Structure formats: structure tokens, C-alpha cells
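S.,

Sequence below, as promised.
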Amino acid sequence: MKTLKKTFWPAVLFGMAAGLLWFTACNDDNDEPKPGEDLSWAQPGAEEVITATNFDGTTASLSIEIIENVGGISEAIIIDEEGDTAVFEFKATTEGIYDYVLSNGDRTKPSTLVEYNADVGMTWTYTVPSGTVVRRELISKGNIYVVSQTYPTTAFEWNLDRIEWRISPSRGVRGCTLYYNDQGPVTFEIN
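The prediction came back faster than expected:
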């Protein structure tokens, strides 16, 4: 049986972590900004706690903090309960959210997580440096956009089938669920 750590960290390296860092940007009176209008959640010093629930029901807390933003590209760090870390980069704009995890940090090759003007059913792909093609599809949109991210079944040793992202167009990614072929899901929610 896999532990949370074994299922979490590979996902960080292959695109999952980018979705875990978007923070609440709305003010207390629920005056929702337009998609991508308030990007304060992508600025240095923004912090949040993530609750991870493993397929067996065990939970863990992770913290995430934006440590730098240069030229619109934010760098974030995730820290687990044991102090292990992962650092990754992403870009949030008025058009969408893009990450540099799938390109192994190559800033000339961003991967589109979501574009706010996309229609339900729209798909896009990204070929990672190893040649594996990652496919993303907008499943639904409204207050929360749901994006499904799928992989070839042989792409990773840890048997990941797909990731389902939950994204608020005014607040960024609010969580994701990793679905494995050989066990139940692992869920991450921004608290």
C-alpha cells in the first residue's frame, strides 16, 4: 500500500502541485473580482494550508507559500509535515493559469492549466520532455471550473490515471483529486 508521501510527491513533480497554490483573493463582503483581476494570491508572502486526504482516509496538512514573483512568474514552495519540500513556478494572468512543472521549469514552454474563455468540452495537450502527452479538458465551468488532466496508462510508475482540478476563476485553484488505477483517490483542498 502506498503512503501519502509516495503518492503526493510524484504528483508535485508532474503537474499536480501547480494547482495547489492558488489562494483566496476575495474580500470579506464577497465582492468577487473578475477572472484573473485580483492576483494578490500569486504575490510573495501569500500563504495557505492544504489538507490532503489519502485513498485510505488518512489525512495530512501541507503548507504552501509564494516566495517570489518576477516578471509575472510566481515561485512557490510546498512543505509537508515532515519538512520535505517541493518548489515550482506558475503564471497567473487575466486570461488563465499556466505552469512550468510539466516543462521541468523551462519558462519558454508553459503548460496551460486553464483559460477562462474556454468552452466546456475544449481540450488541449502538452508534450512533456520525455515525450509523454498530457491531455486537459474543461469538464464544467461557472463559479468553479473543473479541468480533467489525463495521462497514458504507462506514463508513470505510480499508476496515475488522471487529475481533476477545481478552479475558481476569481480565486485560483481550490483543490484537486488524483485518481489512481490501482487504488482510490487522493484529494487536496485549500483550506
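The two ends are 27 Å apart (CA to CA).

Coffee later?
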